[in-house]
Design goal:
- This protein is mainly α.
- It has a 3-stranded mixed beta sheet with strand order 1-3-2, with helices on both faces.
- Mean pLDDT is 89; it is low at 1-21.
- Helix 1 (5-16) packs across helix 2, helix 6 (118-130) crosses helix 9 and helix 9 crosses helix 10 (190-203).
- The protein has 12 helices and 3 strands.
- A hairpin with a 2-residue loop joins strand 2 (76-79) and strand 3 (82-85).
Amino acid sequence: MVVSRRAALAALLVFALGCAPERAPEAGDLQRRAERAAVRVAAILGQPVRPSVELAENAAHAARTAGVDSVEGLAAIAHDGRVIVIPENYAKLTPTGRDVVLAHELTHVAAGTGGLPAWLYEGFADYVAYKDAGLAVPVAAAELATEIRAGQVPRDLPDADAFAPGAARLAQSYQEAWLACRFLAARFGEDRLVRLYRDARRLGVERALPLPSGELVAGWRAYLREELE
């Protein structure tokens, strides 16, 4: 039987839900959000983006599928060319939050992450996801804003350990990385940020950066205070 691309994707999502007909509306909403997110990601990357999304049965199923020990604190995870949505955590998000998460993970799928420091691949994905999301910076980075206003300005960009599922400052680490990429885009332009991401995968981040790493950190720390104090 020949089916449309839309119908095929909906069928995939229903299957991932355990073929439960009562959850078909949930799959349909996810499908529509994934398609919108793919358009947003493609506009920034300048390349087609396939909205490949699977809704796991639960967190344990998502972790097994993605081959990780834990998905604690995550609403979705990119793995093997698709986005796996963790239903327990995804359901807690606002509609805007769901759109942001899908755009973030689809950016990982489309742009890749290999050979990059965590702050860059997570921050870039959030840069794409929050672009035109309609959220003010202090709202999107509320946890980090609380720390900045208390005088707790991070000394360096977050490393890979800061993004481990269940990490104590997981939200703040994502926010720090996002604002590092937002700072670079504000200073050098969005096109330069996209080129940096691609060049860094080929050449390494130190060679791809448009400024010395020490100047990046200093400028980013000042930018955090400017945006969040």
